[in-house]
Protein backbone atom coordinates (compact mmCIF):
# COMPACT_ATOMS: atom_id res chain seq x y z
CA UNK A 1 0.00 0.00 0.00
CA UNK A 2 2.43 2.63 -1.26
CA UNK A 3 1.71 5.63 -3.48
CA UNK A 4 3.50 8.81 -4.55
CA UNK A 5 1.98 12.10 -5.64
CA UNK A 6 3.26 15.41 -6.99
CA UNK A 7 1.47 18.71 -6.43
CA UNK A 8 2.29 22.27 -7.39
CA UNK A 9 2.14 25.22 -5.07
CA UNK A 10 -0.23 27.98 -6.14
CA UNK A 11 -0.28 31.76 -6.11
CA UNK A 12 -3.51 33.40 -5.02
CA UNK A 13 -4.61 36.36 -7.14
CA UNK A 14 -7.47 37.02 -4.72
CA UNK A 15 -6.29 35.91 -1.31
CA UNK A 16 -7.72 33.85 1.51
CA UNK A 17 -7.04 35.67 4.76
CA UNK A 18 -9.20 34.91 7.80
CA UNK A 19 -11.32 31.89 8.64
CA UNK A 20 -14.88 31.44 9.78
CA UNK A 21 -14.10 27.95 11.13
CA UNK A 22 -10.61 27.30 12.47
CA UNK A 23 -10.96 23.50 12.80
CA UNK A 24 -12.45 22.88 9.35
CA UNK A 25 -10.38 25.69 7.81
CA UNK A 26 -13.36 27.37 6.21
CA UNK A 27 -12.31 30.76 4.82
CA UNK A 28 -14.30 33.93 5.33
CA UNK A 29 -14.10 34.61 1.58
CA UNK A 30 -13.54 32.79 -1.70
CA UNK A 31 -10.22 33.05 -3.57
CA UNK A 32 -8.67 32.66 -7.04
CA UNK A 33 -5.29 31.18 -7.89
CA UNK A 34 -2.93 29.61 -10.42
CA UNK A 35 -0.82 26.47 -9.94
CA UNK A 36 2.93 27.04 -10.36
CA UNK A 37 4.98 24.74 -12.59
CA UNK A 38 8.33 24.91 -10.80
CA UNK A 39 7.25 24.94 -7.16
CA UNK A 40 6.46 21.31 -6.40
CA UNK A 41 6.20 18.82 -3.59
CA UNK A 42 6.64 15.09 -4.10
CA UNK A 43 5.36 12.80 -1.35
CA UNK A 44 5.44 9.04 -0.89
CA UNK A 45 3.08 7.42 1.60
CA UNK A 46 3.09 3.78 2.66
CA UNK A 47 0.61 2.18 5.06
CA UNK A 48 2.13 -1.01 6.39
CA UNK A 49 1.03 -3.45 9.09
CA UNK A 50 4.69 -4.22 9.93
CA UNK A 51 5.36 -0.62 11.04
CA UNK A 52 5.34 -0.10 14.82
CA UNK A 53 4.87 3.69 14.67
CA UNK A 54 4.24 6.52 12.20
CA UNK A 55 7.45 7.86 10.62
CA UNK A 56 7.45 11.21 8.81
CA UNK A 57 10.52 12.61 7.03
CA UNK A 58 10.30 16.15 5.66
CA UNK A 59 13.31 16.63 3.40
CA UNK A 60 13.47 20.36 2.93
CA UNK A 61 16.36 21.29 5.13
CA UNK A 62 13.90 22.64 7.70
CA UNK A 63 13.56 19.80 10.14
CA UNK A 64 12.17 22.11 12.78
CA UNK A 65 8.83 21.60 11.04
CA UNK A 66 6.32 19.79 13.18
CA UNK A 67 5.32 16.40 11.69
CA UNK A 68 2.30 16.44 14.02
CA UNK A 69 0.24 18.37 11.47
CA UNK A 70 1.07 15.68 8.88
CA UNK A 71 0.02 12.89 11.28
CA UNK A 72 -3.22 14.73 12.14
CA UNK A 73 -3.99 14.86 8.43
CA UNK A 74 -3.17 11.18 7.95
CA UNK A 75 -5.58 10.40 10.79
CA UNK A 76 -8.35 12.00 8.69
CA UNK A 77 -7.45 9.62 5.86
CA UNK A 78 -7.29 6.61 8.22
CA UNK A 79 -10.68 7.56 9.70
CA UNK A 80 -12.22 7.82 6.23
CA UNK A 81 -10.89 4.38 5.31
CA UNK A 82 -11.75 2.88 8.71
CA UNK A 83 -8.19 1.55 9.04
CA UNK A 84 -5.60 2.07 11.76
CA UNK A 85 -2.43 1.03 9.91
CA UNK A 86 0.84 2.78 10.77
CA UNK A 87 2.34 4.94 8.05
CA UNK A 88 5.70 5.95 6.58
CA UNK A 89 5.89 9.29 4.77
CA UNK A 90 8.76 10.94 2.95
CA UNK A 91 8.21 14.35 1.40
CA UNK A 92 10.42 16.73 -0.51
CA UNK A 93 9.90 20.27 -1.80
CA UNK A 94 11.66 21.70 -4.85
CA UNK A 95 11.80 25.11 -3.13
CA UNK A 96 12.36 26.64 0.32
CA UNK A 97 9.55 26.50 2.87
CA UNK A 98 8.40 29.27 5.24
CA UNK A 99 9.59 32.14 3.03
CA UNK A 100 6.29 32.98 1.30
CA UNK A 101 6.00 30.37 -1.45
CA UNK A 102 3.11 28.36 0.04
CA UNK A 103 4.81 25.00 0.55
CA UNK A 104 1.87 23.90 2.69
CA UNK A 105 -0.40 24.17 -0.38
CA UNK A 106 1.66 21.78 -2.50
CA UNK A 107 2.60 19.77 0.60
CA UNK A 108 -0.92 18.97 1.79
CA UNK A 109 -2.26 18.44 -1.74
CA UNK A 110 0.48 15.88 -2.49
CA UNK A 111 0.07 14.24 0.92
CA UNK A 112 -3.69 13.93 0.49
CA UNK A 113 -3.53 12.38 -2.96
CA UNK A 114 -0.72 9.96 -2.06
CA UNK A 115 -2.34 8.90 1.23
CA UNK A 116 -5.79 8.39 -0.28
CA UNK A 117 -4.33 6.26 -3.07
CA UNK A 118 -2.05 4.30 -0.72
CA UNK A 119 -4.90 3.39 1.62
CA UNK A 120 -7.12 2.32 -1.28
CA UNK A 121 -9.81 5.02 -1.19
CA UNK A 122 -11.43 6.30 -4.38
CA UNK A 123 -12.22 10.00 -4.04
CA UNK A 124 -13.42 12.51 -6.62
CA UNK A 125 -11.45 15.71 -7.32
CA UNK A 126 -13.96 17.61 -5.18
CA UNK A 127 -13.53 15.19 -2.26
CA UNK A 128 -9.73 15.42 -2.55
CA UNK A 129 -9.96 19.20 -2.50
CA UNK A 130 -12.19 19.14 0.61
CA UNK A 131 -9.80 16.79 2.38
CA UNK A 132 -6.68 18.79 1.40
CA UNK A 133 -8.33 21.99 2.68
CA UNK A 134 -8.45 20.53 6.18
CA UNK A 135 -4.65 20.10 6.14
CA UNK A 136 -3.93 23.59 4.80
CA UNK A 137 -6.58 25.88 3.35
CA UNK A 138 -4.74 26.87 0.19
CA UNK A 139 -3.92 23.19 -0.53
CA UNK A 140 -7.48 22.71 -1.80
CA UNK A 141 -6.56 24.93 -4.79
CA UNK A 142 -3.55 22.75 -5.70
CA UNK A 143 -5.77 19.73 -6.45
CA UNK A 144 -7.59 20.95 -9.62
CA UNK A 145 -5.93 22.04 -12.85
CA UNK A 146 -4.49 25.41 -13.86
CA UNK A 147 -6.46 28.47 -12.81
CA UNK A 148 -8.74 27.69 -9.89
CA UNK A 149 -11.47 29.12 -7.71
CA UNK A 150 -12.02 28.13 -4.09
CA UNK A 151 -15.75 28.58 -3.65
CA UNK A 152 -16.77 30.04 -0.36
CA UNK A 153 -19.15 27.54 1.24
CA UNK A 154 -20.49 27.54 4.79
CA UNK A 155 -19.91 23.82 5.38
CA UNK A 156 -17.02 21.45 4.82
CA UNK A 157 -18.82 19.80 1.91
CA UNK A 158 -19.36 23.11 0.10
CA UNK A 159 -15.88 24.62 0.57
CA UNK A 160 -13.56 23.31 -2.17
CA UNK A 161 -11.72 24.43 -5.28
CA UNK A 162 -12.62 23.92 -8.92
CA UNK A 163 -10.68 24.50 -12.12
CA UNK A 164 -11.75 27.62 -14.01
CA UNK A 165 -9.30 27.13 -16.90
CA UNK A 166 -6.61 24.57 -17.79
CA UNK A 167 -2.94 25.62 -17.56
CA UNK A 168 -2.61 26.30 -21.31
CA UNK A 169 -5.52 28.78 -21.21
CA UNK A 170 -3.31 31.84 -20.66
CA UNK A 171 0.46 32.13 -21.05
CA UNK A 172 1.12 34.35 -18.09
CA UNK A 173 4.22 33.76 -15.98
CA UNK A 174 5.00 34.02 -12.27
CA UNK A 175 8.64 35.00 -11.79
CA UNK A 176 9.25 34.07 -8.17
CA UNK A 177 12.05 35.98 -6.50
CA UNK A 178 13.61 34.50 -3.38
CA UNK A 179 14.94 37.44 -1.42
CA UNK A 180 16.19 35.64 1.68
CA UNK A 181 16.28 32.16 3.15
CA UNK A 182 15.12 33.54 6.50
CA UNK A 183 12.11 31.61 7.85
CA UNK A 184 9.02 33.59 8.83
CA UNK A 185 8.49 33.98 12.56
CA UNK A 186 4.67 33.78 12.60
CA UNK A 187 3.40 30.82 10.56
CA UNK A 188 0.53 31.49 8.14
CA UNK A 189 -1.88 29.32 10.14
CA UNK A 190 -1.29 31.51 13.21
CA UNK A 191 -1.43 34.75 11.24
CA UNK A 192 -4.82 33.81 9.79
CA UNK A 193 -6.27 33.86 13.31
CA UNK A 194 -5.55 37.55 13.81
CA UNK A 195 -7.06 38.81 10.52
CA UNK A 196 -10.33 39.90 12.12
CA UNK A 197 -8.54 42.07 14.69
CA UNK A 198 -7.76 44.62 11.96
CA UNK A 199 -10.33 47.41 11.83
CA UNK A 200 -10.01 47.34 8.03
CA UNK A 201 -11.06 43.70 7.80
CA UNK A 202 -14.83 44.21 7.66
CA UNK A 203 -14.37 46.73 4.85
CA UNK A 204 -12.28 44.22 2.91
CA UNK A 205 -14.88 41.50 3.31
CA UNK A 206 -17.75 43.81 2.32
CA UNK A 207 -16.07 44.37 -1.07
CA UNK A 208 -14.44 41.02 -1.72
CA UNK A 209 -17.17 39.33 -3.75
CA UNK A 210 -17.25 42.24 -6.15
CA UNK A 211 -13.48 41.96 -6.49
CA UNK A 212 -13.63 38.21 -7.18
CA UNK A 213 -16.22 38.84 -9.89
CA UNK A 214 -14.04 41.53 -11.46
CA UNK A 215 -10.94 39.34 -11.36
CA UNK A 216 -12.84 36.48 -13.03
CA UNK A 217 -14.00 38.88 -15.73
CA UNK A 218 -10.43 40.03 -16.47
CA UNK A 219 -9.26 36.41 -16.51
CA UNK A 220 -12.06 35.57 -18.91
CA UNK A 221 -11.14 38.45 -21.22
CA UNK A 222 -7.39 37.89 -20.71
CA UNK A 223 -7.19 41.61 -19.94
CA UNK A 224 -3.67 41.59 -18.54
CA UNK A 225 -3.44 45.26 -17.53
CA UNK A 226 -6.68 45.32 -15.53
CA UNK A 227 -5.96 41.86 -14.13
CA UNK A 228 -2.42 42.80 -13.05
CA UNK A 229 -3.40 46.04 -11.45
CA UNK A 230 -6.25 44.36 -9.54
CA UNK A 231 -4.09 41.54 -8.14
CA UNK A 232 -1.33 43.93 -7.08
CA UNK A 233 -3.83 46.07 -5.17
CA UNK A 234 -5.31 42.92 -3.65
CA UNK A 235 -1.89 41.83 -2.32
CA UNK A 236 -1.34 45.26 -0.80
CA UNK A 237 -4.81 45.17 0.75
CA UNK A 238 -4.16 41.80 2.39
CA UNK A 239 -0.86 43.10 3.76
CA UNK A 240 -2.63 46.23 5.02
CA UNK A 241 -4.83 43.88 7.10
CA UNK A 242 -1.73 42.07 8.38
CA UNK A 243 0.06 45.31 9.24
CA UNK A 244 -2.94 46.54 11.25
CA UNK A 245 -3.74 43.28 13.06
CA UNK A 246 -2.98 42.53 16.70
CA UNK A 247 -0.22 41.52 16.89
CA UNK A 248 0.90 43.29 13.70
CA UNK A 249 2.36 41.01 11.04
CA UNK A 250 5.18 42.39 8.93
CA UNK A 251 6.29 39.69 6.51
CA UNK A 252 8.33 41.95 4.22
CA UNK A 253 12.09 42.46 4.32
CA UNK A 254 13.85 45.53 2.88
CA UNK A 255 14.51 43.66 -0.40
CA UNK A 256 10.80 42.83 -0.70
CA UNK A 257 9.96 46.54 -0.54
CA UNK A 258 12.79 47.37 -2.94
CA UNK A 259 11.33 44.92 -5.48
CA UNK A 260 7.80 46.27 -5.06
CA UNK A 261 9.10 49.72 -5.94
CA UNK A 262 11.18 48.36 -8.82
CA UNK A 263 8.17 46.60 -10.37
CA UNK A 264 6.25 49.89 -10.28
CA UNK A 265 9.23 51.72 -11.78
CA UNK A 266 9.63 49.14 -14.59
CA UNK A 267 5.94 49.48 -15.35
CA UNK A 268 6.44 53.23 -15.65
CA UNK A 269 9.10 52.46 -18.28
CA UNK A 270 6.61 50.33 -20.25
CA UNK A 271 7.40 46.81 -18.98
CA UNK A 272 4.08 45.26 -18.06
CA UNK A 273 4.53 43.40 -14.78
CA UNK A 274 2.76 43.35 -11.41
CA UNK A 275 3.66 41.90 -8.02
CA UNK A 276 1.83 39.83 -5.46
CA UNK A 277 3.08 38.57 -2.09
CA UNK A 278 1.90 35.91 0.37
CA UNK A 279 3.00 35.41 3.96
CA UNK A 280 6.75 35.79 3.69
CA UNK A 281 9.38 37.97 2.15
CA UNK A 282 9.53 36.36 -1.30
CA UNK A 283 7.78 38.15 -4.13
CA UNK A 284 5.86 36.89 -7.16
CA UNK A 285 6.17 39.02 -10.31
CA UNK A 286 3.39 38.31 -12.78
CA UNK A 287 4.01 39.10 -16.45
CA UNK A 288 3.11 37.87 -19.93
CA UNK A 289 5.30 35.13 -21.44
CA UNK A 290 6.74 37.53 -24.04
CA UNK A 291 8.06 39.83 -21.28
CA UNK A 292 9.63 37.18 -19.03
CA UNK A 293 13.16 37.68 -20.38
CA UNK A 294 12.97 41.44 -19.82
CA UNK A 295 11.77 40.97 -16.23
CA UNK A 296 14.60 38.50 -15.60
CA UNK A 297 17.15 40.88 -17.15
CA UNK A 298 15.97 43.64 -14.83
CA UNK A 299 16.11 41.32 -11.81
CA UNK A 300 19.66 40.27 -12.65
CA UNK A 301 20.78 43.84 -11.96
CA UNK A 302 19.60 43.62 -8.33
CA UNK A 303 22.38 42.17 -6.22
CA UNK A 304 20.26 41.61 -3.09
CA UNK A 305 18.20 38.76 -4.55
CA UNK A 306 19.03 35.09 -3.91
CA UNK A 307 17.27 33.16 -6.66
CA UNK A 308 14.70 33.42 -9.46
CA UNK A 309 12.22 30.61 -10.25
CA UNK A 310 10.18 31.02 -13.45
CA UNK A 311 6.72 29.43 -13.32
CA UNK A 312 4.11 28.76 -15.97
CA UNK A 313 0.54 27.81 -15.11
CA UNK A 314 0.54 24.15 -14.06
CA UNK A 315 -1.78 21.19 -13.76
CA UNK A 316 -3.34 19.86 -10.58
CA UNK A 317 -2.03 17.12 -8.28
CA UNK A 318 -1.17 13.77 -9.90
CA UNK A 319 0.23 10.34 -9.11
CA UNK A 320 3.67 9.09 -10.16
CA UNK A 321 5.56 5.81 -9.92
CA UNK A 322 8.78 7.59 -8.83
CA UNK A 323 8.59 6.60 -5.18
CA UNK A 324 10.95 8.31 -2.70
CA UNK A 325 11.62 5.02 -0.86
O1 LIG B 1 -3.48 27.93 3.33
P1 LIG B 1 -2.73 28.74 4.33
O2 LIG B 1 -3.24 28.56 5.72
O3 LIG B 1 -1.26 28.48 4.20
O4 LIG B 1 -2.99 30.29 3.99
C1 LIG B 1 -2.68 30.89 2.75
C2 LIG B 1 -2.62 32.37 2.90
C3 LIG B 1 -2.12 33.16 1.72
O5 LIG B 1 -1.13 32.46 1.02
C4 LIG B 1 -1.51 34.46 2.23
C5 LIG B 1 -3.25 33.55 0.76
C6 LIG B 1 -3.74 32.48 -0.16
O6 LIG B 1 -4.93 32.53 -0.50
O7 LIG B 1 -2.95 31.61 -0.59
From TrEMBL:
The Diphosphomevalonate decarboxylase-like N-terminal domain is annotated at 7-161
Cellular component GO terms, alphabetically? Answer: cytosol
Provide a GO biological process annotation.
Answer: isopentenyl diphosphate biosynthetic process, mevalonate pathway
Where does the record place the Mvd1 C-terminal domain? 175-304
Top-level lineage group: Bacteria
| Protein EC | 4.1.1.33
Q: Which InterPro entries match?
A: GHMP_kinase_C_sf (IPR036554), Mev_decarb (IPR005935), Mev_diP_decarb (IPR029765), MVD-like_N (IPR053859), Mvd1_C (IPR041431), Ribosomal_Su5_D2-typ_SF (IPR020568), Ribsml_uS5_D2-typ_fold_subgr (IPR014721)
Class of this enzyme: lyase
**Gene3D superfamilies tied to this protein:** 3.30.230.10, GHMP kinase, C-terminal domain (3.30.70.890)
| Entry's Gene Ontology molecular function annotations | ATP binding; diphosphomevalonate decarboxylase activity
Keywords of the record, alphabetical order, are: ATP-binding, Lipid biosynthesis, Lipid metabolism, Lyase, Nucleotide-binding
User: What does the similarity note say?
Assistant: Belongs to the diphosphomevalonate decarboxylase family.
Name the UniProt record assigns to this protein:
diphosphomevalonate decarboxylase
Q: Which organism is it from?
A: Candidatus Roizmanbacteria bacterium CG_4_10_14_0_8_um_filter_33_9
Protein's gene: mvaD
Amino acid sequence: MKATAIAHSNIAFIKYWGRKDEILRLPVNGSLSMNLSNLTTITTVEFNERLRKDVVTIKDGNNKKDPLRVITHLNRVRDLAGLSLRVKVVTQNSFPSSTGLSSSASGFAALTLAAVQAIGLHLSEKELSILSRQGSGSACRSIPNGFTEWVDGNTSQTSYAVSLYPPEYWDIVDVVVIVSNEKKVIPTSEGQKSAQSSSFYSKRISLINKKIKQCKKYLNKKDFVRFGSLIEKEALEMHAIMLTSSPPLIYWLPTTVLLMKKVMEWRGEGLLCYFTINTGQDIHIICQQKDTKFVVQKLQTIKEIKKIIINNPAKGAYLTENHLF
